Amino acid sequence: MNAINQFFHLKENNTSFKTELLAGLTTFVSMSYILFVNPNVLGASGMDKGALFTVTALSAAFTCVVMGLVANYPIASAPTLGLNAFFTYTVCLGMKVKWQTALAAVLVASILFIILTVFKVREMIIDAIPADIKYAISAGIGLFIAFIGLQGGHLIQNSDSTLVTIGSLNNPTVWITIFGLIITIFLMIARVPGAIFIGMILAAIFGVAIGQIPMPKGIVSSIPSIAPTFAQAIFHIGEINTVQMWVVVFTFLLVTFFDTTGTLIGLVQQAGLMKNNKMPRAGEALVADSSGMLVGSVLGTSPVGAFVESSAGIAVGGKTGLTAVWVGIFFLISTIFSPILSVFTTQVTASALIIVGVLMAENLAHVHWTDLEIAIPCFLIALGMPLTYSISDGLGWGIVVYPISMIAAKKFKKITPMMWILFVVFVIYFFVLNFK
């Protein structure tokens, strides 16, 4: 135990083995839905769903463990939502690209990702972003995951006239979310340790009790083989030989680059680990992150990246890489205990995401709102992430406006060269990749 304490610096970070275990379990439960969602999304491209279940777990486990051991951050990773949909519906079904070729595109993008990391491009970007914008990123991610929680819990739903509207109480699953949220709010305010995790457990029990969550059909299941997807990216890498496929490669690269960079900044900020506006051990964290994408592509999945649901574990008290290692272990265990995971529906985890959103929104207090040249880009970042349903798009809004607002305030000299580079990159990103 002493060796673990010393390796992860638990005492220096005011945490404990028990706290990190609970944080890891909370993060895992919050993001375990990806084990089922990722195979369903990628499976529509023709990939084997059984293999995808195992690949999702293995790629997540690898990246989490590397992040924990190498960077000592409580940040978990897995195949990301959004890019898996782009992989299936835009590249495979829309462009009629074979899924094996699409995996090869992810592999090439991951190699470029690692090159950018080795040359410290991502680290330079993180260090160059002003403190106010870092706080806005963290708060924006909080609003984004709260929005995901409200949506997954059916407290809000689609509306043809207003885009979103309040959910219907006639939907019995909504009551699972409401029950979990009320319990979690009460426990959080009463300062009960592990309030978020307890809230999810009680919500799951409530869902089973009212008949809206079926009892697991078993406890243990066999582990599906990864043979149908393993190394297909390598075998088909020679098919990345057209302009269309290189556009796909750079789309994977750009979206993953800014999604994961923004997520890392926000989560490190939330954990209180940012020092003098710099991210300690940034190089190690970025290497862990990019290596996960590479391994994931070889195993057979769309890009792997940092998960915003890591904030749930951080809110419970996770502050070191031991949290991430535990998440990785739970992903490995999940390969045989998948039936049990079925009770943790989006309605069960919704309360955790909503409460974590509240906690992360606290970072808005650190933004200098009286300085319009700062307030406007920060506001666009915080608002843009949930409204565009994209961390990278929301970040882009603020990055594009920031130099314009600073010039208007006659603070041209405070705009660093890296912020100008980001301005140009995002202008290209919006007008080329997102032009409709």
TrEMBL record:
Q: Mind telling me which InterPro entries this protein's record contains?
A: Azg-like, Azg-like_bact_archaea, NCS2
Q: What residue ranges are annotated as transmembrane?
A: 21-38, 50-71, 102-121, 133-152, 172-189, 196-215, 245-265, 314-333, 340-362, 374-403, 415-435
Q: What is this protein called?
A: Xanthine/uracil permease family protein
Please give the Gene Ontology molecular function terms for this protein.
purine nucleobase transmembrane transporter activity
Question: Has UniProt tagged this entry with the keyword Transcription?
Answer: no
Q: Indicate yes or no for the key word Transmembrane helix.
A: yes
Q: What's its membrane topology?
A: Multi-pass membrane protein
Report the Pfam families cross-referenced here.
Xan_ur_permease
From what superkingdom does this record's organism come?
A: Bacteria
Tell me the compartments it is located in: Cell membrane
GO cellular component terms given for this protein = plasma membrane
Q: Which family does it belong to?
A: Belongs to the nucleobase:cation symporter-2 (NCS2) (TC 2.A.40) family. Azg-like subfamily.
UniProt keyword terms in alphabetical order = Cell membrane, Membrane, Transmembrane, Transmembrane helix, Transport
